[in-house]
Amino acid sequence: MWRKGLKVAGAIGLSLALIVGCSNGGNGGDQSEGGGLSGNLIAVGSSAMQPLVEEAAAKFMEENSGVNITVQGGGSGAGLSAAMDGSANIGNSDVFAEEKDGIDSEKVEDHQVFVVGMGPVVHPEVGVDELTQEQLIDIFTGEVKNWKEVGGKDQEIVLVNRPESSGTRATFAKFALDNNEEFRGKGGIEEDSSGTVQKIVGETPGAIGYLAFSYFNDKVTPLKLDGVEPTDENVYSGEWYVWAYQHMYTNKDSQSKELEQAFIDYILSDEIQESLIPELGYIPVNKMEVERDPEGKVSEKK
Asked: Signal peptide position in this chain (predicted)?
């Protein structure tokens, strides 16, 4: 974790240098002589969003040869901080800025670009494929420590937690655990990267963690909650309540607004919303039948 922090700090430092360079040169999103966009962008934050942003950035750069986009993980907290202090152009986040301590939401602009469903996943041999929300809370708060207590095999439960900076953790704790604090006992596992969580849960007997739908694969078993399957269709309707907007935050005083907006508009385009987003396991924002505000209140979409 410490090393990851250094890597993100290094990336942010690099981005600051690039941004300063753009500002000094006055070309943060300028039109090049050939008529295309040019400049540098740094996007930092949510690891749940990272695969999609990386793919979209690669396609965007193919169409705009004068643009260079660097995408880094680090968690939603790092993304929001970087957008707020201007050390990155785009802060990717699973949570609203208003939900994160230490973030001044007045300094950043919210762009909701797609949606992701999240859910609990277990090692395929724990003997359980469904829990009630109460059972899930009991497991993650340490009240239940063996799978046989919830209908599974006689196997100790191994919790795979996420760090405080994780937007996936914030969404899961708020909606799946009803704001209960996760138990972090001796020998517990904490991992930031969604890809590594997927690997650990798939390889560790008795393990349970939580992932974005985009990280579900045949190595882990997604759990139904209160009889509801974790599917895109159940997210559209709000029946599956563990989901989050995927935000791309920009600094309101940025000097690279044109280039930032061009890349965000590209992700909101039909080209990305109708192809790349579902291909990678995410949900187009225009498919949602409900909407959610920063306080977590859900209502029918207007």
From this structure: 1-25
